[in-house]
Amino acid sequence: MKQRALGRQGLEVSEQGLGCMGMSDFYGGRDEAESVATLERAFELGVTFFDTSDMYGPYTNEELVGRFLRGKRDRVVLATKFGIMRSREGAWLGVNGTPEYVRQCCEASLQRLGVDHIDLYYQHRVDPAVPIEETVGAMAELVRAGKVRHLGLSEAAAATIRRAHAVHPISALQTEYSLWSRDPEDGILAATRELGVGFVAYSPLGRGFLSGRFSRPEDLPAGDVRANHPRFQGENFARNLQLVDRVREIAARKGCTPTQLALAWVMAQGSDIVPIPGTKRRNYLEENVGAGDVALDAADLQAIDEAFPKGATAGLRYPAPTMAAVNR
Predict the structure, then answer these.
(1) Active-site residues: which are they?
(2) Helices (H), the chain
(3) For the segment 215-245, what is each residue's pLDDT rounded down to a tens digit?
């Protein structure tokens, strides 16, 4: 698999990573044995960039990824996150960016992952009660201590990225980006490119919607958090399905799947962008990796933009309370 640089600090990753969240939380239909097999298959296919967080599970996803890492740590780029507090039972306890919490979370993640350093450590959500300079200052101490190699932010506003980058170089910003979530084009991407910060696109398949696998809300597995997302509900679902039908038509002309077209579109937006589609099944993983063979020329990109223009998606990407924590 081809490689891409994230930031200007020497971090290189596979052009497509693997988001591991759904293996342990939020999405229904989990199977740990298949998840482990999916991690191993990703590695076989050349994926070197694996993304987790302490809050996935909570805590259990880091343990799962840690077991996978044994024997291959030096050949994998490991990213994890801190900042969203959850109880062992999964209750939401807020956001914390205090220096003490940064240090506490890093030590706990290192232990769960079974490693002596984290390649890319993100603040999962910005804490409005703590100046970003204090949070990143504590993260920078972890770099100096050798416990972290590179720093990242997730869902941060352009002004916040600038302030953070002034304290310590930020190698990557992780934010939702796909055909149906193009908010980063409104200033975020311009800021990251000006500063030399890489961009990691999570949910590049619109939480699976762009794959074309859902034809009605009832298709979601039981207990799946997406059922609570506005884009997967009622009239919004129907309107968004029409957009996916257009993607399916273009994909058919290109000889690829809608999934591969949507991923190829994200990858075509710049060599500084690395998508991390999440999956917990080998067949979907292999389909995702196939997007690297889909070449989109200017005519293809124009056709996609006309079929699925920016802002066409119906509904918020998260419920309103959750939206309050993004882009700040």
Answers:
(1) 56
(2) 32-44, 60-69, 99-113, 132-144, 158-167, 188-195, 234-254, 258-267, 282-289, 298-307, 320-323
(3) 999 999 988 999 999 999 999 999 999 999 9
